[in-house]
Amino acid sequence: MARYVVRRLLQMGIVFLGATFLLFIALFLLPGDPTQALGSDRNLSPEVSQRIRERYNLDKPVHTQYTLYLESLVKGDLGTSIQLNRPVKSILKDTIPWSVKLAAAAIVVELLIGVISGVISAVKRYSFWDTMVTVSTGILIGMPVFWLGLMLQMLFGVQLQDTPFRLPISGVTEGWKSYVLPAIVLASVSTAITARLTRTTMLEVMRQDYIRTAAAKGLSKQAVTYKHGLRNALIPVVTNLGLDFGTFIGGAILTETVFSWPGVGRQLFLGIVAHDNPVIVGVTILYVVAFMAVNLVVDISYGFLDPRIRYE
Amino acid sequence: MNDPYGASSVSSPPEQIVTQQQNLAGSGAASAAAPGSGDVPLQTLWGDVWRRLRKNKLAILGTSMILTLLLTAIFAPLIAPYDPQLQNLPLSLHPPSLKHWFGTDILGRDYFSRVVYGSRISISIGIVATTISLAIGLTLGAVAGYFGKATDAVISRLGDIFFAFPFTVGVILILVALGPTFPRLLALFIAIGLFHWASVARLFRASILQVKTADYVEAARALGAGHGRILTRHVIPNALAPVIVFSMISTGTVILVEAALSFLGFGVSAGTPAWGYMVSEGKSYMTTQPWLVLFPGLGIVFTVLGFIFVGDGLRDSMDPRLR
Predict the structure, then answer these.
(1) pLDDT (tens digit per residue) in A105-156
(2) Among B283, B240, B277, which residue's Cα sits nearest to residue B260?
(3) What is the pTM assigned to this prediction?
(4) pLDDT confidence of residue A191
(5) Which of A29, A139, B15, B96 is 20 to 30 A from A101 in CA distance terms?
(6) pLDDT tens per residue across span A257-291
(7) Number of helices and strands in chain A (H, E)
């Protein structure tokens, strides 16, 4: 186990270096001068521009920029935003909580709607509800996230404006109500996938010998389905939820942009538009690390949830 | 359909064909006709798949949806009643009518014609970008899975690097890096292909690992077949099934990603009738002219749904245990 974790950590190190280097090459190739974006429609004088370039190491070759960045990263310094003239660390400190809270709300949606509809679908296989779940999950997977967001905004923000069903369509000013639409939109695709996964694993589990044994010893249908069936079927579903948490944090760029959510994803979008390299690098590194960490935790938790799995 | 197992080839004895069928098709002994039993025709995996696919309503619906779209994209100039770029300012923002089925946009351009032309962008990105990722992913996945050891380690880590980026974010960075002067469609092909091959490679590698231990591969090796022959004649054809399903669904995913990129303003160049871009243009008028957001969005949903249905149908036909 310890050996497995060490090997995984080493692999993560390699992937981290590779991913960040790729990122630096992409940003280095980026056309246009990040300093010019500062002057908006007026051009900066060459001297000012040059000073800024020196300050942010933009005048150096890409591998020097990269090693300089890694050096300061080791010291815990993520650089300073060119556009906002603010440490990236403090920007992240302000935005991460909002993204995490939104991701948590999305997980709740996924767990409630996804798992429940998956179970119904499996228990009442081939019924009207089963078909409904199959068709609606297909539509959800096929629907662009941003379009679903706009449609819900139109429905709950415009059409239902004067009814109690009105929901805030942007920002975070209205407490828990502000979370409802963004969380549904962020969770939409994953909820559909969870519903399908729950159905499949549930059907697979219900064919196992121990289910037949449980039924044979005279347990009620409910007890067999929920105590023996659902509990075992939930293992892959729960690990999948873990992975989705990572996806939600990294995949919120669209949802956060559509709903003007003050999280990391929207910050990244603004950073890319403004050519603000330190912000782009900071947020992307956060995504890469979050993704790798969640994967590691999920892989290790497999062993605890299912003792048959052994790590070499 | 062709017989991908080379039933007539010496190195693939009939017994193994049957075993393979049971393993992959999972349909039990009943569907696997015993070879050599006289009048019962020999059935292959793909024969089975084809037979079940024709009975799958969802797959047929999906196929007809994709065909409709392909025809729309190819014959767009014949279907669209107006030039999609023709501006007619007095007609700006007209609601849907008999003359303009989907209304008009801010510049008075016929929205139906623009939606029709939008299918061209989505379909071509979906097909070309998926083909690129398949080409890279299948090659690297096959090499990694078959040769293992250091080759596998290098390719797998390389894949992990691309995998570690959130898909949309990675693609945006490449698109921005290629710059606004780089031809936009080409940039989209490259950026999506570059970040999508890793999923294909990972899936195919796992599938190859499973197949390469099969007895018939061992038999071929014992008969003196080289790496090239074993890979192309035995391992790859048998390992393809999950990738085919994946490629259908991933075409849908790619179309969604392109729409998202164009929506955010990183995709197609301004003014191009692409569905994602049209939604972003229309969203400023959303409260008063909702059709500007509705119709291009429906186009995306229709297209992606078609590919998902076909993918689902294929999967069910290849592994009917789960239906």
Answers:
(1) 999 999 999 999 999 998 888 888 888 898 889 889 889 999 999 999 888 8
(2) B277
(3) 0.83
(4) 94
(5) A139
(6) 999 999 999 999 999 888 888 899 999 999 888 88
(7) 14, 0
Please work out, in degrees rounded to the nearest 5, the angle formed at the alpha carbon of residue B136 by the alpha carbons of B132 and B138: 110
List all residues of chain A from 283 to 312 with a beta carbon under 8 Å from chain B: 284, 287-288, 291-292
CB distance from A269 to chain B under 8 Å?
Answer: yes
Which residue of B lies nearest to A8 if distances are taken between CA atoms?
Answer: B157
CA distances from A151 to A148, A259, B81, B114, B268 (A): 5, 12, 28, 20, 23
Question: Are B165 and A19 an interchain contact pair (Cβ–Cβ within 8 Å)?
Answer: yes
Which of the 8 DSSP states describes residue B34? P
Contacts of A280 in chain B (CB under 8 A): 173
Q: How far is CA A278 from CA A86, A257, A274, B137, in A?
A: 10, 20, 11, 32
pLDDT reported for residue B33: 41
Question: Are residues B264 and A203, on separate chains, in Cβ contact within 8 Å?
Answer: no
For B293, the token pair is: 């957001």
Query: Which of A242, A256, A254, A253 lies closest to A291, judged by CA?
Result: A242
The residue to which tokens 């193994």 are assigned: B16
Q: What are phi and psi of B110, to 5 degrees?
A: -65, 120
Residues in chain B with CB shorter than 8 Å from the CB of A27 are: 173, 177
The C-alpha atoms of residue A208 and residue A232 are separated, in whole angstroms, by 11
Contact call for residues A18 and B161 (beta carbons, < 8 A): yes
CA distance A122 to chain B (A): 10
Contacts of B170 by beta carbon, 8 Å cutoff, 6+ apart: B162, B191, B194, B195
Which of B264, B286, B301 is the closest to A154 by Cβ?
A: B286
Structure tokens given for A197: 């996964």
Write b or e for each residue in A114-135: b if 16 or more Cβ atoms lie within 10 A of its Cβ, otherwise e: bbebbbbbbbeeeeeebeebbe
Nearest-by-Cβ selection for B260 from A11, A146, A153: A146
Task: Name every residue whose Cβ is closer than 8 Å to that of residue A148 and which is 6 or more positions away in sequence.
Answer: A185, A188
* ipTM associated with this complex: 0.84
The answer, for A23 touching chain B at a CB cutoff of 8 Å, is: yes
**B293, B279 in Cβ contact below 8 A?**
yes
CB contact under 8 A, A138 and B305: yes
Torsion of CA B302, B304, B305, B307, to 10 degrees: 120
Q: What are phi and psi of A87, to 5 degrees?
A: -60, 135
Is the distance from CB of A241 to CB of A193 less than 8 angstroms? Answer: no
Q: Across the interface, do B305 and A142 touch by the CB < 8 Å criterion?
A: yes
What residues 246-305 of chain B have any CB closer than 8 A to a CB of chain A? 252, 256, 259-260, 263-266, 276, 279, 283, 286-287, 290, 293-294, 297, 300-301, 303-305
Identify the helix (H) or strand (E) that includes residue A146. helix A145-152
Interface test with B, best of A146, A207, A287 (most B CBs within 10 A): A146
Measure the CA–CA gap between B172 and B74, rounded to whole angstroms. Answer: 28
The amino acid sitting at B236 is I
Contact B173 A203 (CB under 8 A): no
